[in-house]
Amino acid sequence: MTDNNVDSKTWKLLEKAVLASVSEQRRARRWGIFFKTLTFAYLLGMLFFFSPFGESKKSMSSGAHTALIEVRGMIADQESASADNIVSALRKAFEDKNTKGIVLRINSPGGSPVQSGYIYDEIRRLRVLHPDVKVYAVISDLGASGAYYIASAADEIYADKSSLVGSIGVTAAGFGFVGSMEMLGVDRRLYTSGEHKAFLDPFQPQNAEETAFWQTVLQTTHKQFIASVKQGRGDRLKDAEHPELFSGLIWSGEQALELGLIDALGNSSFVAREVIGQTEIVDFTLEESPFDRFTKKFGASVAERLAIWMGFNGPQLR
């Protein structure tokens, strides 16, 4: 009888333990589902919040206005001042029947000659298609190199007396790790199918012939830059008296005015009010969402920065 009571108590204890275990597993599953659902909802909400469903403008107007387009930061693909972004904004501004004038507000050290050239060509093309709409470049802190390349396509250029303007030159930079590899005892093994395929390899000694060739590439790009600036500025540019304009030097806005690099001193509000005659300003700058910027950076930045670090940095208008 005693043994039966012990067995009965044991089975009851086992039953309670099993039921408690099952209950705990169910509770854990419910909480797991809850947290997974919450995480999914959060990610979905972030995606919805940060992903635009169309290109938006900062401000709108139904009447006559001055169109504003910002050119900020590096002029390069995947950046806010990429040719795609600037050109798209320009087209929208020109096509708006209420646009009476366009201000390109520039604060940039320059960047890609390809991107800068694309924007330059598009400004000139749109000016021909819309002769009644003038384009005014307004340099704030910095309008150097590729940024000045773009500005030179405008009808007129304005800047503050202390703005930095110019730097009409081309640069290509990299590193050389030959000495470091010798110190570390590292042997470089590189296999190519072309005699000069690896001429920018930072782990090999410089070759005089290849260095001379690379210099011709930079000089050719520089000549293209100079030709575009001369075409855009025309007789206003005092390059005959000042050949140093194309040496890569940079000047203050006050000096730039004397050299013909700019037409007058003034900011974007001044140009809208006194030159265009429309104080109502509509911002046509294309705005990318943080989500878009993150995905672009994540997809392109690592490879790009690694290429630059390794020495594969193409010509830059900086």
Mean pLDDT: 83
Helix percent band: 40-55%
C-alpha Rg, in Å? 31 Å
Number of strands: 8
* Major sheet characteristics: 8 strands, mixed
Please report the distance between the alpha carbons of the first and last residues.
98 Å
Report the β-strand fraction as a percent range. 5-15%
Unreliable residue stretches: 51-56, 306-312
Reading the helices and strands in chain order gives: HEHEHEHEEHHEHEHEH
Structural class: alpha/beta
General description of the model:
- With 318 residues, this protein is an alpha/beta fold.
- It has nine helices and eight strands.
- It has helices spanning 2-50, 83-95, 113-129, 146-151, 178-184, 208-233, 253-259, 268-276, 290-309; strands at 65-72, 99-108, 134-144, 156-159, 164-166, 250-252, 264-265, 281-283.
- Strands 1, 2, 3, 4, 5, 6, 7 and 8 form an eight-stranded mixed beta sheet that branches.
- Strand 1 (65-72), helix 2 and strand 2 form a beta-alpha-beta unit.
- Helix 2 (83-95) packs parallel to helix 3 (113-129).
- The longest helix is centred in the N-terminal third of the chain and has 49 residues, at 2-50.
- It is flat, with a radius of gyration of 31 Å.
- The chain starts with a helix and ends in a 9-residue tail after the last helix.
- The model is unreliable at 51-56 and 306-312 (pLDDT under 50).
Layout of helices and strands, plus pairs?
Elements lengths: L1 H49 L14 E8 L10 H13 L3 E10 L4 H17 L4 E11 L1 H6 L4 E4 L4 E3 L11 H7 L23 H26 L16 E3 H7 L4 E2 L2 H9 L4 E3 L6 H20 L9
Parallel strand pairs: 1-2, 1-8, 2-3, 3-4, 3-5, 4-7
Antiparallel strand pairs: 5-6
